[in-house]
Design brief:
Layout lengths: L1 E4 L4 H13 L4 E4 L10 H6 L7 E3 L5 E3 L1 H11 L9 H30 L12 H21 L13 H12 L12 H11 L7
Parallel strand pairs: 1-2
Antiparallel strand pairs: 1-3, 3-4
Helix pairs in contact: 1-3, 1-6, 4-5, 4-6, 5-7
C-alpha cells in the first residue's frame, strides 16, 4: 500500500502521527501542494477531489479523508486503541475529535488559507474578512478548550486518542496562522506541551 502525503498540510500529518503511535510503516508518496501536484490529471485518477492524504491499497482501493484512513488502520491494528474502548469510551473520543476538528482544526486551516501569502495558490481569491472571522472563532475555541482541559490529561479523558492528534495538529498549525496560545491558558499550554513531547509528534 501507498500513502500519498504532504508535509504542507495538517490533515496529512494527522495520519503520520497516527501511524507513528501504532508503530506502523507505510510507503509515503510525497505530493507538493505549492507546486499544484495534487491538481494534476494523474493524481486526479487516484483522488477525484484532488485532496491529500490518500491511502491506496494493494488491490487499488483508495481511501481519502484523514480520519477515515486512521479508522482503517485502527481496524487492522486495534492496539493501542486510539478511537477509544467500549461504548462510552468510543463515544467520548468521537465527541472530542469532532469538537476539536470543527471548532479548532478547520477554523485554523481557513485562517491560514485566507491570510498567509504562501497559500494564495491554494485559495483564490483569499478573503481577508473570512480570515478575521475565523481567527476570532479560534480564540473563542481556545478559551473553551482551556477550561475543559483543566481536569483531564488528554482530550477525551485518561487515554491518548485521535482527538489529541487532531488537537496537536491544530495547535501547531496556529503558528502559520500567526495565532498563539495566550499565556493565561495554562491548561491548554500543559496539554500542548505534553502532546508535543511524544515521539510521534515528529512524524
Amino acid at each position: 500500500m501507498k500513502l500519498y502525503d504532504t508535509k504542507q498540510a495538517p490533515n496529512a500529518r494527522r495520519v503520520r502521527i497516527f501511524l507513528a503511535e501504532k508503530g506502523l510503516n507505510v510507503a509515503l508518496m510525497p505530493i507538493d501542494l505549492m507546486k499544484q501536484e495534487h491538481k494534476s490529471q494523474a493524481f486526479g485518477q487516484i483522488s477525484p477531489d484532488h485532496k491529500v492524504p490518500v491511502l491506496v491499497l494493494n488491490d487499488g482501493s483508495a481511501i481519502s479523508e484523514s480520519v477515515a484512513i486512521c479508522r482503517y488502520f485502527e481496524e487492522l491494528h486495534p492496539e493501542p486503541a486510539l478511537f477509544g474502548r467500549g461504548a462510552l469510551g468510543k463515544a467520548m473520543v468521537e465527541m472530542w475529535q469532532r469538537r476539536l476538528e470543527l471548532e479548532l482544526f478547520f477554523p485554523i486551516a481557513e485562517t491560514v488559507r485566507n491570510s498567509h501569502p504562501a497559500f494564495a495558490v491554494l485559495e483564490t481569491p483569499q478573503l481577508a474578512d473570512h480570515a478575521d472571522k475565523m481567527r476570532a472563532r479560534v480564540m473563542g475555541a481556545l478559551a473553551r478548550f482551556d477550561a475543559q482541559m483543566a481536569d483531564r490529561p488528554f482530550a477525551a479523558g485518561d487515554a491518548f486518542s485521535i482527538a489529541d492528534i487532531t488537537g496537536l495538529c491544530a495547535l501547531d498549525f496556529m503558528r502559520i496562522a500567526r495565532i498563539r496560545i495566550p499565556p493565561e491558558m495554562v491548561h491548554l499550554t500543559r496539554w500542548h506541551q505534553s502532546l508535543s513531547a511524544r515521539p510521534s509528534a515528529n512524524a
